[in-house]
Amino acid sequence: MSAGYDAVIVGAGPAGTSTAIGLAGRGFRVALLDKARFPRVKPCAEYANPEAMRVLERLGLLNDVRASGAAVFRGMRVISPGGSSMTLDFDADAGRHALGLSRWRLDQLAVERCRSLGVDVMEGYHVREVLRAGERVVGVRATRRGEPVDVTGRIVIGADGHHSAVARLLELDLPLRWPRRIGLAAHLEGYPLHCEMGEMHVLPTGYCGIAPQEDGRVNAAMVVDMRVFERRAGSVEAFFMSELRAYPEMAERARAAVRVTPIRGVGPLARRVAHNHGDGFLLVGDAAGFFDPFTGEGIYDALHGGELAAQASGDALECGDTSARGLAPYADLRREAFAAKRRAAWLVQAFIRSPRLMDYAVARIASRPRVASTMTGVLGDYREAGVVLSPGFLWRTLRP
Fold first, then answer.
1. Is the peptide bond preceding residue 179 cis, with omega within 30 degrees of 0?
2. Whether residues 291 and 389 fall in one domain
3. Residue 78 lies in a domain
C-alpha cells in the first residue's frame, strides 16, 4: 500500500495532467496513475485551439509544446456536403492561431511537467477497484505487472477518459442512445493543406477533420455512424482510406497520401454520467461525459476542465471537506464553463444531420463576415458560446 496522498488522479491525459499541475502548484501531494507507459499513442483530433494555447501557457507547457515542433495554423475551413465552404480564420479575427501536436508528444511533455513539480507519476498501473471507507471514496486498488497496489488519498479524481474505469466502478455511467458514432484517427504523409488551414469535411454519413502535425504530417480524424462502420465489407484500414476518398474536396489528396500510423478508434463517442462528483471523488475530462462538439476542441475542454478540477478539489482539501457537499462548487464551475458550448454543439449536430440545412448555413455564414467572426471566436473558445444560441444571432445567420 502506498502512503496516503492528498489527491490520487487516475489518467495522465490532458485532463489528468492539468489537474495534477494545478494541485501540485498549490503544494498538495499528488499521485498520477495511468495504465499506459509514456509516450503513447491516443486517438484524438490532436488540435489545440487558441484558448487551449492560453491554458497551456498557464500550465507552463506552451514553450515546450512550441519547441517540440508543433504545427502552427491560422484556422479551419469547413466544407459542407454540397461543396460550400466557410473559413474560420483565427488570425484574421483576433491575431490568434492554433497548434497541431500529436498526443504522443503532448502527453509526454505534460507528464514530464508533472514530474518536475513533484507529482508521483505511476505508469503501468491498471485500476481494478475503488476503495471506500463507508460511503466515501478513499483510494484505488491497481495492479502493476500483475501485483496489487493500493493507492490512497483524501480525494480520488477520475481523469481516465472515454471508458473511465473510475466512473464504471462507481456505477456512474448512463445510457445515451443518440448519436451512436465511432471516431477513427491516423496520421498521413503527403497530404497538402491549403492556406495554412486545417479542414473539416462533412458528408451525410459523417465528417472528417484534418489537422497539421509535427514533422509535416496531418492527423485525419473521422466520425462515422456506428451502423455504417459495423456493416463495412473489408478491413478497418480499407474502410478508413475508402471513407477519406469519399470526401470530394480531399479525394485526390487522400489518394496520394500515405497512412504512416495504425488506425486508432474510440466509440460510441457520446457518453454521460449520473453526476461528476461525490463523497471523496470527482470526474474530469471525458470521464465526466462527452458529446462530440464537431469542431475538435476536446483538448481545450480537457485542459480547462482540469484547471476547474484543481480549483475545486484544492479548495476542498484546504477546507478539510472532500465530501459531496464540499466538492459541490465543481459542478457549478463546469456548468458555467461548458453548458452553453454543449448546447451549441447539439445545435451543430442537428445541422450536420441535414445536408441541405448544412449547405445552406455554411453558405450564409461564408457571405456574412460579422457572423463568421462570431462563429470563429465561439469555436476557438475565446468568445461566449451562448451568443450563437440567441434568436437574433440565428436570424442574422440563417435569414435569406
1. yes
2. no
3. no
- Domain carrying residue 56: 5-71+100-176+270-339
pLDDT tens per residue, range 305-334? 999 999 999 999 999 999 999 999 999 999
pLDDT confidence of residue 227: 87
Residues 251 and 378 occupy one common structural domain: no
Q: Mean pLDDT, to the nearest integer, of 237-266?
A: 93
The answer on 188 and 43 residing in a single domain is no
One domain for residues 234 and 282: no
Q: Which residue has the cell 483538448?
A: 299
105 and 154 fall within a common domain: yes
C-alpha cell at 365: 455564414
Q: What DSSP line would sit under 100-157, residue for residue? A: E--HHHHHHHHHHHHHHTT-EEEET-EEEEEEEETTEEEEEEEEETTEEEEEEEEEEE
Pure H helices in the chain: 14-25, 50-58, 62-67, 90-94, 103-116, 165-169, 226-230, 236-245, 251-256, 298-319, 328-352, 355-366, 369-379, 391-398
Whole-number Å distance between alpha carbons of 127 and 129? 6
Q: Is the same domain home to 316 and 210?
A: no
- Phi, psi for residue 390 in degrees, rounded to 5: -75, 145
Instruction: Tell me whether residue 20 is in a domain.
Output: yes
Q: What is the pLDDT of residue 292?
A: 67
Kindly give, in sequence order, each residue whose CB lies less than 8 Å from that of residue 177, ignoring residues fewer than 6 positions away.
none
Residues in the chain: 400
Q: How many CA atoms lie within 13 A of 4 on its CB side?
A: 7
Q: What's the rounded Cα separation, in Å, for the pair 386 and 364?
A: 20
Report the alpha-carbon distance of residue 255 to residue 234 in Å, rounded: 18
User: Which of 266, 287, 307 is the endpoint of a domain?
Assistant: 266
Is the same domain home to 28 and 150? Answer: yes
Give pLDDT tens digits for 89-102.
998 878 899 999 99
Find out whether the peptide bond into 400 is cis, omega within 30 degrees of 0. no
Answer whether residue 150 is part of any domain: yes
Percent of the chain with pLDDT over 70: 96
Give a yes or no: residue 235 inside a domain. Answer: yes
Of 221, 239, 241, 243, nearest to 230 (Cα)? Answer: 239
Residue found by looking up cell 479551419 in the block = 76
Phi then psi dihedrals of residue 119, to 5 deg: -70, 135
Average pLDDT, the chain: 92
More confident residue, 267 or 360: 360
